[in-house]
Every structure is written in structure tokens, then in C-alpha cells.
Amino acid sequence: MMISKVDKDTALARQLLEFVENCSWYEVKDHIADMLRLWEFTDWECMFAALEDGKIVGMVSVMKTDYYPLPEIYPWISCIFVTESARGRRISGQLIDHANGYAKELGFTKTYIPTEYTGLYEHYGYRYIRDIVNYGGGTDRLYVKELE
């Protein structure tokens, strides 16, 4: 398995868009697909794809903003998804580690993950900070990780 940065107007970008359009993450796949179609990434923002035998099995993004009115908090590790057939092999952890390595190279000292889950991202070194309200009015949990 390898993790590659996805660049605009590349075969990998087209492959990632198709992956997203066909993934089972129904709640956000349209939003992520639109981000890819419109290439709404600025500066250092990007997506990474996990590939096995040339096929995408997972993704993650590093973003300035997420689905929350909190512009002072960034970078966000977001869009974390691994296809069902590839789950159970710690690919999510590898994607998160890769995204954190990228953020650290950029000079960031911490990253944030929003989630509705408890007990998941703690396994990757994140610690709960507080509940946050998203643009849709729902409440999620905000986690932070200090980058070493």
C-alpha cells in the first residue's frame, strides 16, 4: 500500500473523484466530490489517496476549514475514509499519520479532527477538547493532536 498526494488535473485526481462518487459514505460524498470537481483547495490544502495495486482504497485531506465556523482552528485532518474491503488493516491510521507528517513539514505543531465518534481517534494520539457545532446545527466532538 502506498499513499500519494493528489494534484489538480491528474489521472489520480480523476480516479479519486470516481472513488468518491462511488463510495458508501453517503453523508458527505457529494460535498467531497464537489470539492474535487471545483478543486477548492488553496495554498497547502490537499488530499492524499491510499493505493493498493493502483486502485484507491482510502483517502484523507488536510484543510484550512471544515464544516465548522471556527476559522481560528486549523489544519483539519478530514475526509478520512477507507473502503469496506480494505478496512481492518490500519489504513486509516497510515493515512492520518501521512497527513500529520505533511502538516508537520509545513510547520504546524498540531492538527484537529472533528467527529461524532468517541473512542476512535484516541487510538491515533488525538485528545478530546470540546464539543463543537457544525454549520448544519449538529454537534460533533473536536480532537487535537500535538505533532512531535
UniProtKB/TrEMBL annotation:
Coiled-coil residue spans: none
Gene3D superfamilies listed in its UniProt record: 3.40.630.30
Domain N-acetyltransferase: 1-148
Organism encoding this protein: Ruminococcus flavefaciens 007c
Molecular function per GO: acyltransferase activity, transferring groups other than amino-acyl groups
Taxonomy of the source species: Bacteria, Bacillati, Bacillota, Clostridia, Eubacteriales
Full protein name: N-acetyltransferase domain-containing protein
